[in-house]
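During the second year of the project, the team shifted from modelling isolated chains to modelling whole assemblies. The rationale, set out in the original proposal, was that interfaces cannot be judged from single-chain predictions alone. As a representative example for this report, we include one of the complexes processed in the last quarter. Its constituent sequences, exactly as entered into the pipeline, are reproduced here:
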Amino acid sequence: MTVAAPAAADAAASANTVFEPRLVAFVCKWCTYAGADLAGTSRMLYPPNVRVIKLPCTGRIDIAFIIRAFSQGADGVIVSGCHPGDCHYSAGNFRARRRWTLFRDLLDILGFDLRRFQCAWISAAEGTKWAATIRDFTEEMRALGPYTAMRQLAGERGAPVAPRAAVWHGRPARREPEPSADPATRARSEALAGAIAAALTDKSIAAAVGWTLSPTLRRPRPLWITAPEEADRLGLPGDSDGNLARLLKHPQLTVRPLGMVVRHAEMQALNVLRQESQVAEQDVVLFAVARDGRFLGRLDWDAAVAALAADAEGRVNGFSPEVEAEVSRVLALPSAERWDYWRTQFARCIKCYACRNSCPMCGCEVCLADKNQPQWFPTAADGPGNFAWHVIRAFHLAGRCVGCGACQAACPAGVAVNLLGAALARSAAGHFGHHAGASHQDLPLQAAFRTDDRESFIK
Amino acid sequence: MARIGVFICHCGENIARTVDCSSLAKAVLGIPGVRFAVDYKYTCSDPGQQMILAAIREQRLDGIVVAACSPSMHEATFRKAAMIAGLNPYLCEVANIREHCSWVHDDKPAATAKSLDLIRIMVEKVKRNQELKPIKVPITRRALVVGGGISGIQSALDLANAGIPVALVEREPSIGGHMAQLSETFPTLDCSQCIMTPRMVEVAQHPLITLHTYSEIEKVDGYIGNFTVTVRKKARSVDLKKCTGCGTCMQKCPQKKLPSSFDAGLGQRTAIYVPFPQAVPNKPVIDRANCTRFTTGRCGVCQKVCGPGAIDFEQQDELVEEKVGAVVLATGFQLYGIGEQSEKMLKGYPEYGHGHIKDVIDGMQFERLASASGPTAGEIRRPSDGTVPKTVVFLQCVGSRDPAKGISYCSKICCMYTAKHTILYKHKVHDGKAVVFYMDIRAAGKGYDEFTRRAIEDDGALYLRGRVSRLYQDGGQVVVSGVDTLSGRNVELRADLVVLATAVRPQPDARTTAQLFSVGYDASGFLNEAHPKLRPVETAAAGVFLAGACQAPKDIPESVAQASAAASKVQILFSKSELEREPTVARVHRAAPPLYSICQGCFACAGACPYQAIEHEELKDRRGQVIKTVARVNPGLCQGCGTCVATCRNKAVDLDGYTDDQVFAEIAALGAN
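Output from the structure prediction step:
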């Protein structure tokens, strides 16, 4: 592909002093594109560093476009559209605004310099504002210098997998006691097994999924049963990080109604799945188990949510205190150190997609990562590929991740995948009062909006 | 391999001054897929277009990029040229190197390099463009008009006279609206009912108009060309088919002392009533909230005296479905503080004592006093004691133009109708004195300024520029305490009657109406037009038009003009048998075997769609078993914003014309170094 030297580079070569940044603008065609037209008809001069990509609405701007622009060498990206209330499509920009808030918080924990990503409302009448915004942005980026962090990721791969002891699992290492060891535990799991056996006998469920102690792992692992006599193999989940709700998304496992042993994390996940029409109330029969192992009974949906609510105590947005503490620690680092932290983390990733497969929310039949027309992420397990994967994965879980920690437990390389989810859960709760899985009636975070959502960051 | 042609326009000197077009044309040839590139002085001119036509044919181009002015200027021109040459118009793109480049930069090498980038973006996009065909939507050639005031009547008659069947929905028992209540109209002083009632009768008799009075809109489904509107016909308790309108029931009804809302609370009516003698339909309705039969279960006199047996106490609300292709909203306005006696207090104006002082009335009440069909048969008599007031004070801008009281806009009609009131008053009470407090006299309109001058100069109304701080009762009179800002003096007048020109406000349920029809509304609650200047009767919802004061305060001529404009917009829409829409709409993935979609059915897109364009579709196997429920975009409703695409996690939905593939290619085109 023949490539002409960019305008900026030409100018830089001749002046040999000033750095000329490359700026990309994603704008809506009704307001900002027309505002830029007006700047033209009014002959307002501004630096030639910006390249405009026209879209119908700010609502169309995918965060993947922004990431791609940076990885293609942009030094700054600006997104702009109609002022709130003026959207040609009445509310596309309200959705965009929410998305930008979440995306900025995600970039923030990654240690990305937020000055390089600007948001603005520029109407068709604001040619002056467009010219001034581009002028200021160009100046700011000239002063900031070239953006190299994303490009440096290229070729970074295969950082040594952390030694087993150092792998971050978001909680202290521990072993489960043997079920037979404690008579109280034994009695509890017998009550649970009895209820499930009864349900299988009276055919109110076609199959059940619960937990059993793996003799090799010496930890609970999921167990499917279809006959009452198998029920005595069932044990208690303990605080296993797996989330049984993920089994509902499996296209082959279409047995309904399905009995399920649910803890707080499963119930939260079920709420989100029900919001998203992935499970119906009649599809599952719930056998609730409290954190301390008490069997709370075969409960209907709302009763199970209420009965398990107490288990949220001590957790923040569903996440364990250990994860929360780590998020706070990372956020307190200077941004350059944050970026380095994540570079090390992502360099470890081998793209096995265990995080995706263990997640109760990641339920797409064809994942974006598996699509190649267009190619959404670089497929290689290297710096840019891993960065795009983890950022987009985290963003897809914004407002949906219930903090069960299944991904964290599944990651063989000990990448701190859970932290991004926790940071976004903070953002969702802080800015929008949204708590993933709080109720099956909530609107999806990224589809809903309020006209008074925060926008102090938008110029 | 693509065969793209690039045409670089000099736009005279406009582009060529700052962009080196000929070297640009050479550089463009280096972009993969570009087979042909040329620069030309005026590409939009006829020879310019002929050049494009020839190049497409001779070079067998399968896509073109015109680097010229903004696409808002000439995209349509170039697409048409492409179409004439046999190329699908959506395979033509415009690179904006004038407004976004040559006009805003002065450094020629930099502007030339930027132009090359802008062209490269568009070349990469056009390589991935699909041949799109305009979406054809069938049209139901029948219209719905909501509101039976003068605007709704005008729209309905215009449409029906053009041969289009119309359903007219009015929530009151009779059509006529506010105009039927007026005595005379400015600036000609012709009797309102004399010009209004013939139109009402015309509506009732028109074979193409279906009239639903005492009815409200319950539900709206569908989209432009194909709306299904559910109308709730409220139980009238009178069978309209049997009733002859003889009026015996009203004469015999024992419940006679209910305030008549038609007479703005000044007159009285029975519990079974027609709102006014010229009502259309001229058949009564039972006010169930106040009828003795319904409140106590006893009575039933009307049923006994009704010859044809039309009274039906058991009648239920009825839901009627109207299938229409277009909607005209003419839902009108309310006056600030209008309502039943008990709610008459003007919120924010306790100092005017409205509702407490009997002789402080609003403009509509004065209309009824002046009307020959009103409670005083046209004699100006004040409500407290029925005497003829010798001094009448009129206060303008009560509520209007007062942000502190919540309304910042001008209600537009009050200056004129106050002038009219003074004239009507002076014509009826020759020795009376009319005093007007005003802020500014806004009399822009044909014959309007002459009219206000006439009130002042010929009929001797005293106009004082200033505001009134307080009204209070003193003996049999109302003391008006105000200021005359021109002389700078405080003024205290003793009035027999005070008339408040209260603000025009949106209907109390205007927002509900707006939401039903997906139409925007402003901060006050007036319905929003699509563009304040160029599309004043269209709305953001395709196929829904506005007429009259539901959009903003308007007088009768303006309302009628807009109503006719809305009717003609509907006729334009109906002039074709099928509707053609821009094909840049969203599409949910479908594939073999035999019908499959990667859509997960989470319907996040449905939550994000501003147009309710996302439908559910069941994918079934060969035995008819539902495999899964997935999303489907209704192309008739989709406006192509693409919010669903950015919301969809696995990109099961894409937007034609702005696909993910295209956008990524555009970004990649920038990754030059």
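The domain at 586-656 of chain B is CATH 3.30.70.3270 (Alpha-Beta Plaits). Chain B has a mean pLDDT of 92.
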